[in-house]
Amino acid sequence: MFLSKKGFAKVLIMVICYIALGSISIAFWVFFAFTGIKATFMLVLGIVLYFLCALIALWGLYAEGKGKLLNTAQKLVRVELCPAEFIEQYRALRNSSELVISKPSFEVLQMLAIAYDTLDDRESCIATVKEMIAAAPAKKKVQAELFYVSILFSYEKKEEAEKLFNDLQLRKLDAVSRMMVDSILKSDRAMVMGDYKTVELYNLQLLERSFPKLDNLGKLIVNYKLGEVYEKLGETEKALARYEYCAANGGETAIRTAASREIEKFQKKDT
Fold first, then answer.
1. pLDDT tens, residue by residue, 38-47
2. First vs last C-alpha separation in the chain
3. Which of 102, 111, 122, 164 is the most buried (most CB within 10 A)?
4. Residue 251 and residue 82: Cα distance in Å, rounded?
């Protein structure tokens, strides 16, 4: 959570306002009670407002400390495909002297790792994933480590990924973790193991999935992976079509650059 002095002040003001309104309501109830007028509604309203203070505080801290940054990350990294811009904003925020709380959350670190990955900055990505695992709450620790496994397989660190993956599958997995295991088996791990048909089928299904639909980054990653698969299978025309999609829709990611290189490679072969 990154909470600035300004953000903390906004939350504090909201809480004070609700406390004040609750106190006024109860004060009116006391006043009316002394005058013999029944005003139970004012008492109930005051109690409700006091109760809302805790909810307002929690919601405000989330919105100011994590929610805004996560929304920015989703927009820049996954929709607009501008990962470098998010990384720049994150660094500026983390180094700000205006923070009263400077502790990046698991979710924000995950988005930061994805941003580094889309720029093919592997060293920074792995360092961020390790930081993310350390910051993950107990109930999300396995999910964080499975995310690391996915990254390791995609970087072709087969032995390290396989060992950790096997260890994690022996633990008690929640529904999200089981879905992550299935995804790894059918995509990142299958790719490293040379099971290209499994990778093709799984990623084609992702493109056709109606809910949840892939965002721009998801489509980009899936299309590039299919390009790699078709290239491995010797299906040049299909591979070229996937790479052309990535080159045209890759935004400011390294995937666009890599796809353009693959297209040039095919063109040189034809000449």
1. 888 898 999 9
2. 54
3. 111
4. 7
Look-up of token digits 């790894």: 184
Work out the pLDDT band at 1, boundaries 50, 70, 90: confident
Q: Which two tokens stand for residue 122?
A: 């592997």
Q: What is the pLDDT of residue 101?
A: 81
Residue 5 CA to residue 73 CA, distance in Å, equals 21
Neighbours of 159 (CB within 10 A): 8
- Tracing tokens 């990611």 back to the chain, one arrives at 253
| Mean pLDDT over the full length of the chain | 93
Q: What is the 3-state secondary structure (H, E, C) of 115-153?
A: HHHHCCCHHHHHHHHHHHHHHCCHHHHHHHHHHHHHHHH
Q: pTM for this structure? A: 0.89
Q: Give pLDDT tens digits for 166-212.
A: 999 999 899 999 999 999 999 999 999 999 999 999 999 999 998 88
Instruction: Retrieve residue 14's tokens.
Output: 């909201």
The residue type of 51 is: F
CB 106, CB 145: distance < 8 Å: no
Q: 3-class DSSP state for residue 145?
A: helix
Please tell me whether residue 268 adopts helix, strand or coil conformation. Answer: helix
Q: Return the C-alpha torsion angle 165, 171, 173, 179, nearest 10.
A: 10
Q: Are 225 and 203 in contact (CB under 8 A)?
A: yes
Looking only at Cα atoms, what is the longest distance across the chain?
98
Strands (E), the chain: 2-4, 99-102
In this structure, of 66-80, 91-105, 210-224, the range with the lowest mean pLDDT score is: 91-105
